[in-house]
Design goal:
about 65% helix; 14 helices
Length: about 375
């Protein structure tokens, strides 16, 4: 057995050990940790369990079984007995009702598991998924540097599934989508022309689905839209038009549950269910900026930016295309979140991880091609 295979096996066992440690840690988590967002996500899951797909209507009047009241009382919420004062349930004048502000995807994901044991299996599933993508990256590496890069990235990605992913139930499903979309994005640039339209549609569908977990995931599509629009304006070809159309149609299909939820809860597919704090005009805030600069999110962002700049230095046009798409996505998301009045320890983690997974698989492909070329056409030995 060669050294590369041995190293891959050792790294694989190391990743498995981290995965086991994560799941052991999660097994001791509580679903009643006193966080308002948790209660709301669990209430959405409860509505799906109780009413099926009709649970997408989050009107507080459906709390006739007192699920929300009991959850709020459990965490010590002072006004637990008045559901119209419940957190993350703003009043929507257009529909004349108090509804949950979050899109339905996270609650739907939680509802796939038995009531009272929903959070741990959701996080465990997300961890296993990230483990699989990390293994795929490692076994895709063809030379020692690539293998080391994939292994280090895999360990870091699994670590992030505990912290900061535990901050919100919306993060684990988002992380799964980012890993899958990153792989598909890198594959799109190396795929045969006849496969590219299917791949870009699948990417659009995945990113659209991610919006159902977190509404700000909408901005994960920004770089793709700008890149595809630019490609069409530059080439003015049927192929580039169909790529953009396929992405757009698939993206809309992906976000359909959120549009339906908005229509039911807010009175229009394009009306927001979020409260006033989340919809204020963008504005630079020194305290928000400082919070990002001292947080691990900024470290991930800096790595993404530096890696993108490094990838741009490759001679291959494909490398520059990947770098351009990632740079556009980073720029748009950075502008949005840095001008948003609220900071959380996970806001820019999705764009960080989508960018990093894309860069990882693109780099592995490029280095793998170089390694294959070197093996096929070795340099003559110096005299």
């Amino acid at each position: 057995m060669g050294r590369m295979k041995i190293f891959k096996l050792l790294c694989g066992f190391g990743l498995l050990a981290v995965l086991a440690s994560n799941i052991w840690t999660m097994s001791r988590w509580s679903e009643s940790r006193g966080v308002y967002d948790d209660v709301c996500y669990l209430r959405q899951a409860h509505l799906f369990e109780r009413f099926g797909l009709r649970g997408i209507d989050t009107n507080v009047t459906f709390d006739d079984d007192h699920y929300l009241k009991n959850k709020l009382k459990e965490i010590g919420y002072a006004e637990w007995n008045d559901v119209k004062r419940a957190p993350c349930h703003p009043f929507i004048p257009a529909s004349d009702k108090h509804v949950m502000q979050y899109p339905p995807g996270t609650g739907f994901a939680l509802a796939m598991f038995p009531s009272g044991f929903q959070v741990i299996p959701l996080y465990a599933l997300a961890n296993v998924t990230i483990f699989v993508f990390a293994l795929l990256a490692m076994f895709r590496a063809r030379e020692p540097v690539s293998l080391t890069l994939a292994a280090v990235f895999g360990f870091a990605a699994l670590y992030l599934m505990i912290n900061p992913s535990k901050a919100s139930y919306s993060v684990p499903p988002t992380m799964m989508v980012c890993a899958a979309a990153g792989l598909l994005t890198a594959t799109f640039f190396v795929a045969r022309p006849r496969h590219r339209r299917f791949l870009i549609a699948l990417i659009g569908l995945l990113i659209g689905l991610s919006v159902n977990f977190r509404l700000p995931n909408l901005f994960l599509a920004a770089g793709y839209c700008l890149y595809l629009a630019g490609a069409f304006l530059r080439a003015r070809s049927r192929v580039t038009f169909l790529h953009g159309l396929s992405f757009g149609v698939a993206f809309v299909i992906g976000i359909a549950p959120t549009l339906i939820a908005n229509a039911i809860n807010a009175g229009s597919p394009f009306a927001t269910t979020y409260g006033s704090v989340d919809v204020v005009p963008p504005e630079l805030n020194a305290s928000v900026l400082l919070s990002y600069f001292v947080d691990v999110q900024f470290t991930l962002l800096a790595i993404s930016a530096a890696w993108t700049a490094w990838l741009w230095r490759f001679d291959q046009g494909r490398a520059r295309q990947v770098a351009l798409l990632v740079a556009l996505n980073l720029a748009v998301n950075l502008i949005f979140f840095m001008t948003h009045p609220i900071f959380t320890p996970y806001y820019i983690v999705p764009i960080d991880m989508l960018s990093l997974w894309t860069l990882l698989f693109a780099t592995l492909d490029l280095r793998g091609e170089r390694a294959a070329d070197s093996a096929a056409f070795p340099q003559p030995a110096k005299a």
